Amino acid sequence: MPELDFNTPALKRHRKIRALKDRMAGMGIAVGGSSVILAVLLICFYLLYEVAPLFSSASIDAEASYALPAEDQGKSLYLTTEEQSEVGMRVTSNGSIVFFSVADGSVINRVKNLRSEKVTAFAVESDTSRLVAFGYEDGKALIVKHDYKISYPDGKRKITPVVEYPYGEDAIDVADFAIKKLTVRDGSDSLTMAAIGDTKSAITKVSKEVNFITEEVELSEQSESLPFVADVASMLLSGDQRYLYVATRSGALSEFDLRDFDNIALKDAMSLFKDPNTKLVSMSYLLGKSSIMVADSSGHVSQWFNVRNEENEEKLTFIRDVKQPIAIVDLAMEQRRKGFATLDERGLVAIYNATSTRQVINEKLSDNNARLISFSPRANGLLLEDDKGLHFFHVDNEHPEVSWSSLWGKVWYEGYQEPTYTWQSSAANNDFEPKYSLMPLAFGTLKAAFYAMLMAVPLAICGAIYTAYFMAPALRRKIKPVIELMEALPTVILGFLAGLFFAPFLEENLAATFSVFVVLPVGILVFAYCWSRLPQNLRWLVPEGWQPLLLIPVIVFLAWLCLAMSPIIELNFFGGNIRGWITNDLGITFDQRNALVVGFAMGFAVIPTIFSITEDAIFSVPKALTQGSLALGATYWQTMTRVVLPTASPGIFSAVMIGMGRAVGETMIVLMATGNTPIMDANIFEGMRTLAANLAVEVPESEVGSSHYRILFLAAFVLFIFTFVVNTIAETVRQHLRKKYGSL
């Protein structure tokens, strides 16, 4: 026979082309795989890029220093700036108001005291309202408001400071004695002022009423005496003008109830300090006028607000504190956040967030007897006064409210009875404090996944076992594609049906729902027992592996029976109202859209994933293993449990982990079927909010670059890490199972 020539030009050319194709395919696979890894890493790095500013340190830089503007008008009682930090204002001891350029200290305008009497007291209503009050030696008080008009002559911004007198240029009679201490609180219906002299105390309420004919605001005054408190260091009126707090230098606090203005009574008395040698330095309201911040001579700044006790009475309660090494000289509040700054005797300024107690800045800004500090409205500027004059500092402090404890720990928020895990990113008023605890979202994610997997895993794995091992091949070829087709259903449709149809149906048929869990398994077992006791010639009428079709009418009948018996069960065992029995007798909260609804709906969505992978893993077990086991005398069940399942266990475990990843990342079903409430409760009858659903809801509404925006990216990063950890564990366990059972 002639020898075959494998080196003909055609074969050589074919081998070269095939080798080129192999190299190109290898390069394509390598590039594709590397691109996937790179894409995942880029997503991770982008998330970190957005999250990193949350934990970056704040900074403060000197911008300008100059002599005290209009120093001849006396020492400063109050410092502030307008919105743009271009025009500053200082109130002097003789009652003058001096407006100056923040950049160089040049005087822009000077408004002298309207009255000839000596100013003996001064009070700030709040930084945001821009109202201040002067108390005089004749017992009168003058309310002044500083404002800033913006115009654009020649296309350039011009800020013109003005002084207004919202209650007229005539001072209000507050007391018949020289005012030594004064506090004021303004509202839509009334203005309240409290004054203390050397031996007397008084309080005045100015009520506002609109004349329906002239539409002018008419004022009426009412004055009452107060129990006198000696050695007063500070006074505060609550934001709703219901309570008056009077604190002495030693820290003794008296709380007066002003709700019955004709009968003012002492509501409570307490001590702010444990050490009798500690002295009160400052007492002022945090943003929102709910929390009182108390600074003392030992360096502590403590936060207090009203909490209802067991008798449902409001009681001023210590919440938290921060500590500086030495005595504090002054305290400044941020105007739009729950932040504050302390100035101590060394000229060291520390900036904190009250809720997170996070210290973001702690720097020495003065060596010359610093005495006053003040924030600009946006908290991006800080004015400091010392013996050399005024100093303006630029503050870069974007995310002070974010800390590890505020994200993952319990926090005691204003208006709450105790520390809680709370997510609430927005509200209707400007005084609202965002609450960014990720714990309710992480808990909700795990809760939704748990109930979904609780339903999906047993059904999917058991169904896959029967389909791959016991079912007739012809029936398997029909059943498997149908179940896999379920995965193509849009989750938004499943969520829509779950929220609008299934949740109300479940609520109306709770008795049927729970009876199904008992009646269905028992009924199927009874039917199987009866089937096994039928004559063999009858059982042979149904081909081997087609018996599941007989269960369809059985399951339909049992489900109908449970629905039909539901009213009877509810009437005889639960007084005709099972939901009321759950709520009233068991004390369990019931929401229509709850975890049970999510378990059914999301379990339905996860079943096809777990079923398909598990079925393939079991079906891929070599037939020689099963045949050998059966030949050695093992039953079908023994072969399944001791040979097939261990061999297929890596694939089954992977199926469960992939299904869990699908459940954790699911968005639309939990968004539409849970009520989307961020609460931490394992109750199956209450809803939840997951990380994925929260991202879908709030990312489009968040301000780019804000704390809210970046915390949402942090939530996405947490979800990314969780998925990565789950997949890593799954791969590790899968490899272990493969090594353990690979020899079978």
TrEMBL record:
The ABC transmembrane type-1 domain, residue ranges: 442-730
Keywords assigned: Membrane, Transmembrane, Transmembrane helix, Transport
Segments traversing the membrane: 25-49, 448-470, 482-504, 510-530, 550-575, 595-613, 643-664, 711-730
Pfam families linked to this entry: BPD_transp_1 (PF00528)
Localization, UniProt: Cell membrane
Membrane protein topology class: Multi-pass membrane protein
CDD domains, per the entry: TM_PBP2 (cd06261)
Signal peptide residues on this chain, from the entry's feature table: none
Alphabetical list of SUPFAM superfamilies matching this protein: MetI-like (SSF161098), Putative isomerase YbhE (SSF101908)
Family as reported in the entry's similarity comment: Belongs to the binding-protein-dependent transport system permease family.
Protein name: Phosphate ABC transporter permease
Source organism (scientific name): Marinomonas pontica
